[in-house]
Amino acid sequence: MLAREDMQEPLLYLASALSPEWLVAGRNVKVKQAPTDYGPVSYTLDATEEGATLKFEAQWLKAPAGLRFHIPWFVELRSTAADGKAVDVRNRVIELPSGVREVRFQWTRKGDTELSYRKGSNAMWIAIGKSSAARRSRTLTVDGFSQSNGRFFRCQTSGRRHRPSRGECSLFR
């Protein structure tokens, strides 16, 4: 999951399922205008040798009480700062204010990260029946539906050998 809401608390969760292949230095994960109950959100997570930088933007209809960013399972976090201030981590989750703009992570990758979401992505890609031309272009498209606002959205990733280098979500009108 790249973004999901919890209306009970009310919180917005970010990056709760990232692949090790997505966060190789020089690559990024990008979410653009993903529909949530709180309003559309966009973020870019740029990976570096030392960690990553998250740049967050939202058009809140009603801001959540906060954001929760999940530290990927394949890294050891050394430090993190949100808008220049140190942030605590509990159970591999960082609590952030809804007005945050930038989060800097310093981490190191764990030794063995062979497990990835690539097999699942390939299976999903074939299951949604993209044309052979789309398979050659190495584009994975996932369509979804936001139950809260009744709108459909599409997320796409593209890259060599099914290794996403960017992803975008957009609403269907």
Give a structural overview:
With 173 residues, the chain is mostly beta strands. The protein has one domain (3-171). The chain is built from two helices and 14 strands, in the order E-E-E-E-E-E-E-E-E-E-E-H-H-E-E-E. The protein has helices at 118-127, 132-136; strands at residues 3-6, 11-14, 28-34, 41-47, 51-58, 66-70, 75-82, 85-86, 89-90, 93-96, 102-109, 139-146, 151-158, 166-171. The strands form three sheets. Strands 3-4-5-11-7-8 form a six-stranded antiparallel sheet, with no helix packed on it. A hairpin with a 7-residue loop joins strand 13 (151-158) and strand 14 (166-171). The longest helix is centred in the last third of the chain and has 10 residues, at 118-127. It is globular and about 40 Å long. It starts with a strand and ends with a strand.
In short:
With 173 residues, the protein is mainly beta. It has helices at residues 118-127, 132-136; strands at 3-6, 11-14, 28-34, 41-47, 51-58, 66-70, 75-82, 85-86, 89-90, 93-96, 102-109, 139-146, 151-158, 166-171.
Assembly state of the chains shown: single chain
Query: How many helix segments?
Result: 2
Task: Please tally the β strands and state the result.
Answer: 14
Q: Into which percent range does the helicity of residues fall?
A: under 10%
**How much beta, percentage-wise?**
over 45%
Radius of gyration: 16 Å
Return the string of H and E elements.
Answer: EEEEEEEEEEEHHEEE
Q: State the major sheet.
A: 6 strands, antiparallel
The end-to-end span amounts to: 23 Å
Q: Low-confidence stretches at least 5 residues in length (pLDDT < 50)?
A: 116-140, 159-168
Please state how the strands of the largest beta sheet are arranged side by side.
3-4-5-11-7-8
